[in-house]
Structure to design on (280 residues):
């Protein structure tokens, strides 16, 4: 990045005699924007790598414990066999215990492979979303990884007008970009989750905040399906009303933060359940 910065300003130095100040300022502004986008993506990449290291450390501890248990059981079996103080049935029982330890060792290896694969998919997904939405204000949309899921949080001021569940034209552009990234990952499922503040609402079509949150999530799901071709079998529409706030509702800014729609890209839990199934 430092090399790029130096080359950029050297080029600007030699070009200032040939271009107008307006063009020069435009190029500087464009460079600043690109650098900001790069810094954001770089920070996100660092966070994902750090989370992956933590998971690898936990799996490493399990592997070490199994290795110690395996060595201990093997040594005990050999000692007892040498002394001829155990029956054939007891020796067979200990042998089966060792086989169980080996099976668990293989399970941990498979789990480690799946976790690494999932982390890689989540990282790629986040980077693709960041790239697709790089021109959107950070105050209006936020993308991050929590646990095993990727969260896209969009402010309601971008998606809807006050008290309405009709999606704005600007919001449809954003949802179109999100749809392009999601459709490139056909194996993942996701849930659209509506959230409101604690201000009461009652209209002819909306009885309360439960209604509003569900209607808004359904509007997003319907738009992704009908306008952008996302498979409806992959989507869940849900409403959380006012009951999962991210901050206090005591101020206008706080209420604005709580009015949001989240797209939660769910982990593929079926892969982990398959690992737990007993083998024949």
């Amino acid at each position: 990045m430092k090399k790029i910065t130096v080359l950029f300003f050297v080029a600007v130095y030699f070009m200032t005699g040939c271009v107008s100040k307006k063009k020069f300022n435009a190029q500087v502004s464009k460079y600043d924007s690109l650098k900001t986008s790069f810094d954001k993506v770089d920070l996100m990449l660092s966070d994902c790598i750090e989370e992956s290291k933590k998971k690898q450390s936990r799996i490493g501890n399990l592997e070490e414990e199994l290795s110690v248990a395996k060595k201990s059981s093997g040594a005990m079996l050999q000692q007892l066999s040498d002394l001829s103080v155990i029956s054939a049935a007891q020796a067979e029982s200990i042998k089966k215990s060792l086989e169980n330890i080996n099976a668990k060792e293989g399970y941990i290896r498979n789990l480690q492979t799946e976790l690494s694969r999932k982390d890689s998919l989540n990282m790629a997904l986040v980077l693709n979303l960041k790239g697709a939405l790089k021109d959107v204000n950070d105050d209006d949309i936020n993308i991050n990884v929590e646990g095993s899921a990727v969260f896209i949080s969009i402010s309601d001021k971008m998606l809807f007008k006050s008290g309405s569940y009709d999606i704005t034209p600007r919001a449809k552009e954003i949802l179109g970009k999100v749809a392009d990234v999601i459709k490139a990952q056909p194996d993942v499922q996701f849930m659209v989750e509506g959230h409101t503040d604690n201000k009461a609402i009652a209209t002819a079509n909306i009885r309360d905040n439960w209604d509003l949150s569900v209607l808004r999530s359904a509007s997003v799901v319907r738009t992704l399906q009908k306008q952008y071709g996302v498979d409806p079998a992959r989507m869940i529409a849900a409403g959380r009303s006012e009951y999962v706030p991210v901050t206090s509702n005591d101020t206008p800014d706080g209420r604005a933060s709580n009015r949001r729609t989240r797209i939660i890209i769910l982990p593929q839990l079926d892969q982990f359940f398959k690992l737990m199934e007993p083998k024949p």
Q: What stands out?
A: The chain has eight helices and five strands. The chain has two domains: 1-135, 140-272. Confidence is low (pLDDT under 50) at residues 271-276. The CA atoms of residues 74 and 98 lie 7 Å apart.
